[in-house]
């Protein structure tokens, strides 16, 4: 559409389809409809600044992205759209219904259905949104909750040392390792984004200390376990530790 004489673009048709698609359950969607999801994800990512200018659009847009992320066909476009929305709608993020959706998205990634790159993009997007919360305590507790959404994925692999039967089940053990590696990558993405956000002045050393205090005991237990013999796990652990230290170093 070519707009003439500075006429505003009417996004009501886009929002109409967003509401229709996001109200469907995964069972009601087929492959073709997820291709439509992908296309609308691209549109939302491209025009997020205009779409997010209306407060009433934020919740349905986030729910749309959450649904689209769950399928491989549309996961990348909806992950990018989520990042753009978190960047452009930061003034609305502090409201409880919006925070609940963001936490719901982050906590749903423990199933390991997405590419690691998409998971990292999603966590970076949500971290960016949470860093914009003006209330210091709410910001700190929200970031801690986001970190803890990945904490349990790593904690489960440590617990396997006390469950010999699970360790002997090669399929279950491989799945637990994969989930733990993904959890470490998400933690690393969170700390990497914090390192870039510190210059904004919204992230203080107290917040970083709280997050590092959650992260370090877990990593310490992991490094003392036999699972570190796995190359993917040890690489992910070192990467997440490097990101955490880098974010702490910004205050030194």
How would you explain this protein's 3D organization?
- By secondary structure, this protein is mainly alpha-helical.
- The protein folds into two domains: 11-132; 149-251, no CATH class.
- Helices cover 74% and strands 0% of the residues.
- The longest helix is centred in the last third of the chain and has 28 residues, at 170-197.
- The chain is globular.
How is the secondary structure organized here?
Blueprint: H1 12-22, H2 31-46, H3 48-51, H4 55-69, H5 72-88, H6 96-107, H7 116-131, H8 136-159, H9 164-168, H10 170-197, H11 205-223, H12 231-249
Helix pairs in contact: 1-4, 2-4, 2-5, 4-5, 4-6, 5-7, 6-7, 6-8, 7-8, 7-10, 8-10, 8-11, 10-12, 11-12
Amino- and carboxy-terminal Cα gap = 51 Å
Largest sheet, strands/sense/barrel: none
Please tell me what the overall shape is: globular
Strand content: under 5%
Helicity, in percent? over 70%
In DSSP terms (H or I, runs of 4 or more residues), the helix count works out at: 12
InterPro entries: ARM-like (IPR011989), ARM-type_fold (IPR016024), Importin_beta-like_NTR (IPR051345)
GO biological process, one term: protein import into nucleus
GO cellular component, one term: cytoplasm
Organism: Aegilops tauschii subsp. strangulata (Goatgrass)
């Amino acid at each position: 559409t070519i707009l003439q004489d500075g006429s505003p673009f009417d996004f009501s048709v886009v929002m109409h389809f967003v509401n229709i698609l996001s109200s469907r359950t995964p069972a009601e969607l087929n492959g073709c409809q997820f291709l439509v999801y992908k296309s609308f994800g691209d549109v939302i990512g491209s025009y997020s600044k205009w779409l997010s200018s209306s407060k009433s659009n934020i919740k349905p847009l986030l729910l749309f992205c959450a649904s689209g992320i769950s399928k491989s066909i549309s996961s990348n476009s909806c992950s990018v759209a989520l990042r753009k929305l978190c960047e452009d709608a930061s003034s609305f993020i502090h409201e409880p219904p919006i925070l609940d959706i963001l936490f719901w998205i982050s906590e749903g990634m423990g199933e390991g259905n997405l590419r690691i790159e998409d998971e990292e993009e999603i966590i970076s997007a949500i971290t960016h949104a949470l860093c914009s919360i003006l209330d210091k305590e709410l910001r700190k507790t929200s970031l801690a909750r986001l970190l803890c959404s990945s904490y349990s994925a790593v904690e489960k692999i440590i617990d396997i040392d006390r469950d010999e039967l699970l360790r002997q089940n090669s399929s279950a053990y491989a799945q637990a390792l994969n989930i733990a590696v993904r959890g470490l990558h998400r933690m690393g993405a969170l700390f990497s984004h914090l390192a870039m956000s510190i210059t904004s002045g919204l992230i203080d050393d107290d917040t970083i200390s709280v997050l590092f205090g959650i992260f370090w005991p877990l990593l310490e237990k992991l490094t003392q376990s036999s699972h570190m013999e796995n190359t993917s796990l040890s690489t992910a652990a070192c990467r997440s530790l490097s990101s955490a230290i880098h974010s702490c170093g910004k205050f030194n």
